[in-house]
Design brief:
flat; Ubiquitin-like (UB roll); about 140 residues; PaaB; PaaB_sf; Phenylacetate-CoA oxygenase, PaaH subunit; about 20% helix; single chain
Amino acid sequence: MTPPAPSAAPAAPAPSAAGPAADPATAAGSAEVIDSAAIGESADIIDSADWPLWEVFVRSKAGLEHRHCGSLHASDARMALQHARDVYTRRQEGCSVWVVRSGQIVASDPDDKAMYFDPARDKVYRHPSFYRLPDAVEHM
């Protein structure tokens, strides 16, 4: 029994009539041409829109409160901090950045406003109208 003969190498494609620059596969050297429609169909590529939404809070100076300045999509907390730094503190206007997953924020219902804020009306002693300030105290 004789071994099978090695197969012939596939023939190279014929150059186009317009020359090598007209062929997109050779126009950029040996770079592969990627079809943008194929990228969207690939299951291996994770779309950034599928990443969770993160809320970004920046403190402008030490001693001040953090303020909500926007939202962004990131795959994890580390990436969210990096994106928040790049997007919201480009001009060194912050000294601290917080990122919180939007799904982790718990908020009160506006319909429950009375339950949360009306009890403060019962504590009138917290209002400064009950205190007499000395004349020496300025800027109050």
